[in-house]
Amino acid sequence: MGTRISTKKAASLLGLPEQTLRIFLQHGRFKEFAEAIKKEGSKHWTYYINENRLYEYIKIKRPVQTAI
């Protein structure tokens, strides 16, 4: 299972403003690696962005994380 990353990091990798990415996700764009979920009766959205699938989508290698 992939790691979930923030909309801020994903937007940066895609070269988009963060709010633009959120709107795209709310309208069903980028289903290859992400989804936006809104619970019934709520005005707030939750975003799930799969890091591994995002890196595959943009065709770059995932950075190696080092232990501190």
Description of the molecule:
The chain is α+β, with helices and mostly antiparallel strands and about 70 residues long. The protein has three helices and two strands; from the N terminus they run H-H-E-E-H. Strands 1-2 form a two-stranded antiparallel sheet. Strand 1 (about 35-40) and strand 2 (about 45-50) form a beta hairpin. Helix 1 crosses helix 2. The longest helix is centred in the N-terminal third of the chain and has 9 residues, at about 20-25. It is globular. The two termini are about 25 Å apart. The mean pLDDT is about 90.
The number of helices is 3
* Strand proportion: 5-15%
**How many strand segments?**
2
Please mark out the parts with pLDDT under 50 across 5 or more consecutive residues, or reply none: none
Major sheet, described briefly?
A: 2 strands, antiparallel
Inertia-based shape: globular
Tell me roughly what share of residues is in helical segments: 25-40%
Judged by helices, strands and strand pairing, the structural class is: alpha+beta
CA-CA gap between termini: 23 Å
Give the oligomeric state.
single chain
Strand order of the largest sheet: 1-2
CA-atom Rg in angstroms: 13 Å
Question: What is this structure, in a nutshell?
Answer:
With 68 residues, the chain is an alpha+beta fold.
List keywords for this structure.
single chain, 68 residues, alpha+beta, two-stranded antiparallel ribbon, 2 strands, 15% strand
Please outline the helices and strands.
Elements: H1 7-14, H2 18-26, E1 34-38, E2 45-49, H3 51-58
Antiparallel strand pairs: 1-2
Helix pairs in contact: 1-2
